[in-house]
Design goal:
The protein is mostly helical. The protein contains 7 helices and 2 strands.
Amino acid sequence: MPIEQTIIDRELLLNFFLTFSRFEYALKASNFFKRPNTSSNNTLRPPDAQPDWDRFAVSLRDAFHKDKNNQLLEACKYIIESPPWKQVIINDRVDWESPIRPEHETDIEFILRMVRCIRNNLFHGGKCNNKAFEQKERNKKLLECSLIVLNECLALSPSVKDTFDEAII
């Protein structure tokens, strides 16, 4: 397959990647970054800057209402009921596993964890095989639903949205 070909619409893929990238930048710039381990003795180099999606999701617990409108409700419902599989190692082979949702995890925490899984599957090559090709409509739907959720999260977090809007890509 030439580089120009994809099984999912290129515009949708590009929109998802750019949105996700800008979102991670905005999280870090808005103080939603993982705090360094203060017990670490490595003072020779500063810790890597990583977005703290979990802390961001917790910050939205009270504000996020999946039933705000039909589009958001359907997107959340799809991600919750048909979450992306995650690549795991079983018996020394790469395989797929359905994610496990702990009882304490709220809808927004689970949904944003699944959005990251969708990104990871695409970015790290998990969706570049025949099995993924067979599920192209499902993969497309997961991307579309993720974008709906990310846009709602931006609407609920003005500081993250302002930084997101300033991001240049």
